[in-house]
Amino acid sequence: MERVLQYDGSFDGLLTTIFTIYQHKIKSPIIQAPAQQQSSIFGTAHEVITEPEKAHRVLKRMNELSTPQDMREFYKAFLSEVIGIENTLFQYCQQTFEAGKAPSGDYGNSIILKISQAAKMVGREKHRMEAFIRFHLIEDDLYYANCEPDFNVLPLIASHFKNRYADQKWVIYDLKRDFGISYDLHEVVEVTINFKDPRSQRGIVNTGGLKESRFRESENNYRDLWNQYFKSTNIESRKNMKLHLQHVPRRYWKYLSEKVA
């Protein structure tokens, strides 16, 4: 009988689940993320509690048998949140452990192909977020940006924005997944924001809220200047909307200052 293993959706949670499968010699496991968890007619459901030590043991072994590129692809595929990707990644681990090395570059292998395709989609979304995220200055010296990426790319873009904006405090918040990353001039940490909390006054928070309406006048002036620059460099006679949409899909427009009327 198939056994459903439900985990918390974290990378450590997935690795703990893989450890648990081997530890208890579970036959025909089905791994489910929180969004997919429901009463299953296929087998007994079991909740896996994340244990960093067990997760580390799996990760250490995978690193020993894989190249850094293999592991980057593995992690990106996990962040894709494609339905069933956890089971694909488990099968990849199975093949790696059994062979004593990762099946790198074997695109005739359906498991490798699925992971590669998912990783490529995540990689493209990562680059789009790095290009399209726009910060707005809110109270004090904090910059804030909303986003709704197709895939969970915030863990991948943290270093880019930390390096690019090392001298300012910022928060990037994923509205779709209800979590964000915050930089305080020293380190990047994960945060959650309660937008409904009226007591919240600023954005360096773990539980407080942010209000986008709290822009300074200088931020509005900056937007005006940016829009003027964009219009002055935009040559109407050379406009190619089809090409423009290929590079800047409409779903990103609401976060671009130059697209704000």
What can you see in these coordinates?
The longest helix has 23 residues, at 110-132. The strands form 2 sheets. Strands 4-5-6-7-8 form a 5-stranded mixed beta sheet, covered by helices on one side. It folds into 3 domains: 2-124, no CATH class; 133-215; 217-261, no CATH class. It has 8 helices and 8 strands; from the N terminus they run βαββααααββαβββαα. It is of the alpha/beta class. α3 packs across α5 (110-132). Residues 86-258 form the DUF4130 domain.
Compute the separation of the termini in Å: 58 Å
Let me know the number of strands. Answer: 8
Strand order of the largest sheet: 4-5-6-7-8
Mean pLDDT: 81
Mind describing the biggest β-sheet? Answer: 5 strands, mixed
| Helix coverage percent | 40-55%
Low-confidence stretches: 199-222
Radius of gyration: 22 Å
Report the order of strands and helices. Answer: EHEEHHHHEEHEEEHH
Structural class category: alpha/beta
